[in-house]
Amino acid sequence: MKKLKVGIVSFTDPRAVRGIDEINRSNIAAQNRLSASLRKEGVTCIVPLKASCVDGKKTAEVAIRKFLSQDVDALVFGCWKWTDPMLAVDIARRVDKPILLYGDNNEASTPLGCIAAVGAALWEIAPTYNAASHARIVGDFQETAAWARGVGAVSMLRKQSLLLWGGSYCLKMPHLEDDPSALKSFLVGDILTEDQYFLIDGAEKILRSGKKRIADFINWLKNGGTTIEYDGGCATAVNLKRQVALYLSARDRLVELEAENIGGVSIKCQPALSERYGVTGCLLPAFIPFGEDSEGPRDALPTVCEGDIKGLVSSMLLRNIAGGTPPGFGDIRHVRQDGRLQLLVSNCGAASAHYADVSGSTRDKLSRIKLKAQCQGAGGCAVGYSGPGFGAATLARLIRCEGEYIMQYVVGESIDISDETAGRLGWGDMWPLSLFDINLDIADFASRMGSNHYSFVPGDYGSELIYACRAAGIKTEDLGSL
């Protein structure tokens, strides 16, 4: 996916004060240390003034033009020594991106006064929301990287489109839908809706003239060790071929829509596909958010079900924060394992095949997958697995309560699910299973959860989510601190 681009500029005293040359050399050295630390985190740094600082309108104009031409995702203002605060305000006015004021944490530097003066000017004038909501960090490269990932993820999201096949919402669940115009006004690039007939039409053509493509995909699964269990009713070879054709049709449609910068998709599925067309669309949420298939490398796009707009936004934001890692997604339920209550995420028939084995090869992942008869719908296979634990994980969900957006999140640990636990599930035991230890207090969690769907990615990205939501004007709620 597109790499995060952060613009970095340092300010200096415009007056001919004593030792100004040495001050500027010290400023540039500090700027170099900061940019080097961000590059180590995979951030592309745009530094328009590599050997000098902003000391007046001419140098500020050089920085502005460079940032605009490079379409940076965020700005870092190096506040090492005193400067004219209006120089920073001018850049903030012209380059409307999330802003961080950064200073060194050492006695030879005087960042507090500069950060306070520049920050106060941004608050006082507040030419943009980004200026008013700027962040401030002193001497912490890791926290700066977290800020960059967070606000950069929002900047990317504002350029991306959501694609809803079948629209929203499903099964009369109003929390899955949203106000597209409101979301487009501050958070996402566009929300595109098209009928699932686009997929059906493409699938029927593939069934007629693309039989080799279907056979190749099924052979790719089998050669990777995937178990396919037919039952002669719901799960049949004919139904599986129709499911594969739907998946390939979706991939073809995404190529046709490449210019739209699709960042994630939703398949409504029920009831148009699952009942009327005769098979569920389970292969889409399993393999669209996966890095390859029988036809080679693929873009791993977040994919959700049931027309869940806020679930898709949550998944896209997590993917942007995590540098392209496809998010997991699904319904939540609780289980008791090893004497503790745990949170199980298990989607209605399929979720990203990446989580069949996060650290394994493609074959490792495919070999843990079982295609078995779905427990709902007229026909088709669910794409199931019991994903092994992968350590730290961040779960998140954008909700709306009394008209206000809130990002709920919790950082926990992905853990193995035992065969004994999986065997007790009953309903949905053929679905993908991902288990999380989040120190679950079921009463507290039940009192606050804003959806039956949550998204997740490996890693602790709590700080990134807070910075991202602050940049977007969204409140956050840590479900782990209830």
Explain the layout of strands and helices:
Layout: E1 5-10, H1 20-40, E2 44-46, H2 57-70, E3 74-78, H3 85-94, E4 99-103, H4 111-125, H5 129-132, E5 135-138, H6 141-157, E6 161-165, H7 180-186, E7 190-194, H8 197-209, H9 211-223, E8 227-228, H10 237-256, E9 262-267, H11 272-277, H12 283-287, E10 292-293, E11 296-297, E12 303-305, H13 309-321, E13 328-337, E14 340-345, H14 362-367, E15 370-373, E16 381-386, E17 391-401, E18 404-415, H15 419-423, E19 432-437, H16 442-448, E20 453-458, H17 462-472, E21 475-478
Parallel strand pairs: 1-2, 1-3, 3-4, 4-5, 6-7, 6-9, 8-15, 9-12, 16-19, 18-21
Antiparallel strand pairs: 10-11, 13-14, 13-20, 14-19, 15-16, 17-18, 17-20, 18-19
Assign an overall shape: elongated
The biggest sheet amounts to: 6 strands, antiparallel, barrel
Query: Regarding CATH, which class of the largest domain?
Result: Alpha Beta
Please give the order of strands in the largest beta sheet. Answer: 13-14-19-18-17-20
CATH superfamily of the largest domain: L-fucose/L-arabinose isomerase, C-terminal
Note the total helix count: 17
CATH arch. level architecture of the largest domain: Alpha-Beta Barrel
Q: Which class do the helix and strand fractions yield?
A: alpha/beta
Instruction: Give unreliable regions as ranges.
Output: none
Q: What share of residues is helical?
A: 25-40%
- Give the rounded overall mean pLDDT: 96
Give the strand content: 15-25%
DSSP E strands, number: 21
CATH topology of the largest domain: L-fucose Isomerase, Chain A, domain 3
